[in-house]
Design a protein that fits this description.
Blueprint: E1 3-4, E2 23-24, H1 40-45, E3 49-52, E4 62-69, E5 78-80, E6 83-84, E7 90-94, E8 117-123, E9 127-128, E10 131-133, E11 137-140, E12 145-150, H2 168-178, H3 182-196, E13 205-210, E14 215-221, E15 237-242, E16 248-251, E17 268-270, H4 276-280, H5 294-298, H6 314-322, H7 349-356, E18 384-387, E19 390-393, E20 403-411, H8 417-420, E21 422-427, E22 436-439, H9 462-475, H10 477-512, H11 514-546, E23 551-554, E24 559-562, H12 567-577
Antiparallel strand pairs: 1-2, 3-4, 3-16, 4-20, 5-10, 6-9, 7-8, 10-11, 12-13, 13-14, 14-15, 15-17, 18-19, 20-21, 21-22, 23-24
Helix pairs in contact: 2-3, 9-10, 9-11, 10-11
């Protein structure tokens, strides 16, 4: 995701103030020169996608994730049912700005899109698959799963003209409707983009594309603003690389595909212009003797965890979390870090939850290091500021606190599609949300997940329950997060533990009647989500009472106790404010 948020943090005692400027990341593809990409804002605020091969997971599932880190974007979800279409039918194509929302009066984002028709109609297929989507498609009824991360591109490749008919949201929707496998999804998206143009509000984009057997990184960029459909040339450049089955990978808003071997069709796919376009634009010299490198050609990023002071540390951190034995150095340029790694141990879905909630704990980039987190070690006082002509910012962690929602999609080859596909969906801030399971076979999303926005508080909206708890956690974070962790253990981990039992019950019903299985799964997921949302409303109420007035109110004993402040913060406060000790009593 690409939006610029300028956040100034002013620490007066322990109160942090945030100032937002919700501007689309124009810098996603812009650069000060034609040979470099300006990624500072992109790296600070955008999304992270993790990919896990089936032999790298503890249960044999393939996993993809998306932390939808924005802060001003749409968070509503929809289920699009399968449909049959008459011969000769057409499918209208729309532009979907990732960062655009619609107010309640217009029915929210996915009910207010008729005016976004961009003039293109493509041939409809006989049957479209059912799927779930938020800002992108995430899982269809064939167990094709997605995750997203914006990667930027060279400025001259950006095509924001009306000639580019496809953005990444619409590509993901069409692939959800038509694809039965990851490879099929990639070909569908690649062919549509090259024929009709890619861009509009999007620059360089990445999708993690999975099915029960494989997971791929698919990356796509435009070909510049001069392209038009009548040129006879492709309107996009794309490339895809498969993650080995026993590996895991990550995309933290930077291109991940390096050298490519198009002869190895089991691991690489690409548009026909993948190399020729680079040669034409001067990004690659075939006479140099050097192999072609996708990311160096189209989305170069010369930085490391250390040189960026943590704003580009997510890649380094992820690799060290999953493969600590390899001891990757924070000084290694990100461009030289591997595409994927074999983890030291297999990864479970709960491991993925923990990775996504990481804030660089026990590293020099910890986002609550020293007084940066205030007296209560809050890792969310992320800021970007200019002072005395110099720019300052806190490291950008994986566990960003401005997520609209986070998805962990599991696809599993040992179960029928309606049972094998599973989305774990957490609304709001990663550290304080609770992941709820939604099986691919359910026939509706809970109503409370289908509406709401940032600007109107509404207790009927699921997302506000998680924001409500998050808000009350931030005040005395180091204390309140312990209460949140207990609630997550009760609701989130218990749902993970129940998965096998639910699978077995659904499978028995499926053998009797697929419709009975779908009803069972729908009722289970919606009832569980409803109970979880209610639990988070109560958790927010409980936190308000327990930590009111920066005190500790013991409800059972009906006593008020002091909250203890850490010594390091007290010493810093004394030094900065020049506090003098109280005179001794005589």
């Amino acid at each position: 995701m690409r939006h610029r948020a300028f956040i100034l943090i002013a620490i007066t005692s322990f109160v942090a103030g945030f100032i937002w400027n919700p501007i689309v990341f124009a810098q996603g593809c812009n650069s000060t020169t034609s040979n470099a990409v300006t990624y500072e804002a992109l790296a600070l605020e955008a999304c992270t996608s993790v990919l896990v091969g089936k032999k790298a997971s503890t249960d044999g599932s393939v996993m993809t994730t998306h932390t939808n880190d924005c802060g001003v974007c749409d968070w509503t979800w929809r289920y699009e049912p399968p449909a049959d279409h008459e011969p000769g039918s057409k499918r209208k194509i729309y532009w979907f700005n990732q960062f655009e929302t619609s107010p309640p009066g217009k029915g929210y984002h996915w009910s207010d899109y008729g005016h976004k028709f961009n003039g293109l109609e493509i041939d409809e297929v006989e049957h479209t698959y059912g799927y779930f989507h938020g800002m992108f498609g995430y899982l269809n009824d064939q167990q094709v799963g997605f995750g997203e991360s914006s990667i930027g591109c060279r400025r001259e490749l950006q095509n924001s003209t009306p000639a580019a008919k496809f953005d990444i949201t619409q590509l993901s929707f069409i692939a959800m409707e038509r694809a039965r496998t990851a490879r099929e999804a990639i070909r569908i998206m690649g062919n549509l983009a090259t024929e009709h143009g890619f861009g509009h509000t999007d620059r360089g984009e990445m999708l993690a594309v999975s099915d029960p057997n494989e997971v791929w990184i698919f990356e796509i960029v435009g070909v510049g603003p001069l392209w038009n459909p009548g040129s006879g040339k492709p309107g996009a450049i794309w490339c895809a690389q498969r993650v080995p089955d026993d590996h895991i990978s990550v995309c933290p808003n930077e291109s991940r595909i390096g050298e490519i071997d198009l002869k190895n069709k089991d691991f690489f796919m690409a548009s026909e212009n993948v190399i020729s376009q680079a040669v034409e634009m001067g990004y690659y010299d075939p006479d140099s003797g050097k192999p072609f490198n996708w990311k160096r050609a189209y989305s170069p990023r010369e930085t490391s965890a250390s040189s960026s002071r943590g704003s580009s540390a997510r890649l380094w951190r992820f690799l060290n979390l999953v493969a600590p034995s390899k001891q990757f150095s924070p000084d290694t340029p990100n461009m030289e870090l591997p595409f994927s790694v074999k983890p030291d141990k297999k990864i479970s879905v709960t491991d993925v939850f923990h990775i996504l909630r990481d804030n660089y704990e026990n590293t020099p980039f910890y986002t609550a290091k020293g007084i940066m987190g205030g007296p209560f070690e809050n890792p969310n006082y992320t800021f970007r500021a200019n002072l005395d002509g110099k720019q300052y910012r806190v490291p950008r962690s994986i566990g960003m606190n401005r997520s609209e929602y986070t998805t962990v999609v599991q696809v599993r080859d040992w179960l029928p599609n309606p049972i094998g596909g599973l989305i774990w969906l957490g609304l709001g801030s990663l550290n304080t949300t609770c992941f709820a399971p939604f099986y691919g076979g359910i026939t509706r999303m809970p109503k409370s997940y289908q509406f709401g926005d940032h600007w109107e508080f509404d207790r009927r909206v699921a997302r506000w329950a998680f924001d409500y708890t998050d808000f009350h956690t931030q005040v005395v974070y180091s204390y309140a997060i312990q209460d949140v962790r207990k609630a997550q253990e009760k609701w989130e981990l218990s749902a993970v533990d129940r998965t096998r039992e639910i699978d077995e019950k659904a499978l028995a019903l499926y053998k009797e009647s697929p419709e009975k299985a779908r009803k069972f799964l729908t009722d289970y997921c919606c009832d569980n989500a409803h109970a979880m949302v209610n639990a988070w409303w109560k958790l927010g109420d409980d936190l308000l009472v327990k930590y009111n007035h920066f005190s500790l109110y013991d409800v059972k004993e009906r006593r008020r106790n002091r909250l203890e402040y850490p010594e390091a913060w007290i010493r810093a406060l004394i030094k900065v404010n020049g506090l003098e000790p109280q005179p001794e009593r005589r």
